[in-house]
Amino acid sequence: MTTAISVKDLVKRYRRTLALDRVSLELEDGLIHGLFGHNGAGKTTLMSIITAQGFATAGRVMVYGQRPHENAAALQRMCFIREGQGYPNDFHPKEALAIARLFYPRWDAKLADHLVKALDIPMNGRMRRLSRGQNSAVGVTIGLASRADITFFDEPYLGLDAMARQIFYEAVSYSYGRDPRTIVLSSHLIDEVANLVSNVVVLDHGRVLIDQERDKLLAGAARIIGPAAKVEEFAAGRSVVLRETMGPYLALTTIGQIDDPTRVALAAAGLTAETVSLQRLVIHLTRAAGTWVGAAGLPTDDVATLAGDLP
Description:
The chain folds into 2 domains: 3-212, Rossmann fold (3-Layer(aba) Sandwich); 217-309, 2-Layer Sandwich (Alpha-Beta Plaits). Helices cover 35% and strands 28% of the residues. The chain contains 11 helices and 13 strands. It is globular, with a radius of gyration of 22 Å. Mean pLDDT is 89; it is low at 291-311.
């Protein structure tokens, strides 16, 4: 495994606010990573420091074995596209793309032209007069066409409608399929990007709650549905992150892999085991972290062990 990004004990303080609390991560090269978490979890701060657009209070960041700050060679290998990407007011989209083409040596002109047409970008309009969606379209076009070794997308497509977002997702899949590289997708629309990501990282209050392969994460959870007493009997001893009562029936989202013999036993007992969507699982684990820490009085160092039962 080649490591694209290595983060060790990263801390970021804004006066009294602790935005990142000893974050340690290693992101494998050549994968699409999903970076998730609620607003204020530290996602943008983390990406800003990795791309040298912000400074850490403590800790270390390495990009392909080099420190990114004041390192032109390392910075040229990265592209960071964020929500509300800023451009000079007098810029036009054609100028933004022209400058990006000069900066990124592996620029994909054909893909850029395709996205300009598919997303209906007004190339001669002034950036300051573009709608939020049009501004987002310029950003995602630059991010994908850059073909940078590492590309960060920090919610840049929230201004796009459902059809435009689908065009973006298809372009990610197409571009990555032709030229596998490291992509980090930060999004609140988790289920929309779930099929794109191979690895899932979840930040919660500035700390890493989950860092795991998507398929292993999903395989390690299930939603058990059936008569309440039978469901409770099955769930005894298992970690439960969500309870849903439906009259005499109960649905429990549990942590712990369910093998084939167990599924047979569940069916025989009249119970159903459903897979849990990535979005629901991330939300439930994040909520459970706050609930368990508060109720059980666990030290904050133990928050990340919530997902420890997952394979």
